[in-house]
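It would be a great kindness if you could assist me with a short task in structural biology. Thank you for your consideration; the sequence and its tokens are set out here.
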Amino acid sequence: MINIDLGEFRMQSAVVTAGGDRIRWAELPGAGPARVYVHGLGSTSPAYFAASAVHPLLAGRRSLLIDLLGHGHSDRPEDFSYTLEAHADALAAALEQAGTGAAELIAHSMGGAVAIVLADRHPHLVSRLVLVDANLDPTPPGPAAPGSSGLATYTEQEFLAGGWAEVRDRVGAHWWSTMRLAGRVALHRSAVHLGAGTTPTMRELLVELKIPRSYLVPAEDGSVPEAEALEAAGVAVIPVPDCGHNIMLDNPDGFVRATANALARD
């Protein structure tokens, strides 16, 4: 078990919309270049990444555990689109104000999709990507699915009228513990737009990027779709044992080792 001194973290924020909405993050001081940790759908970065950021293999860097707009500690505007592009642009505004420069992004699930779009739209803000079981392809809605595709089966009106409670019961207590912090409009719109993906797709954008890129996946999931094409484009595909989708929580030591190795790649 890793003991975390929460006194080392400082809560920071930046206005990222014309309406004055703020993105917030927990910041750990340290050397540059900065590292930015980005959570997935219905999550929050401090809960998912604090132990990793202070682990001896990763400690010592300026680290921003950032919550996307609509999630965690950040504001939850209902007049925001929550597309992947809008998330990326809001994140870019926060990083500009934080003065991170070209940062190393460690991004999970939906956060990985946002990080790819950020690197494409704002390349001066991203020096490398470590994607953690990130969404690379559009996902059609599916009623039995617990993630974004399950949320996207509801219209926004249906979700706000009671669909959110069905999602709560389906995803379980652990995910709901952070999902309940997200604005319901933000949660639904983020899920819908994550499922729809981008044009070109996140995978196509990732392949075209010229920065160091790594993609961490649960080893038990088997082969990654189009892994050979990713590796041919310079993306290191790194299996992590003994974990599911939430690699950093299921196997903290394995996640930290894999992330440290990914950050050391040229």
User: Anything to note?
Assistant: The CA atoms of residues 14 and 20 lie 9 Å apart. The chain has a mean pLDDT of 93. Strands lie at 10-15, 22-28, 31-38, 61-67, 103-108, 126-132, 213-218, 235-240.
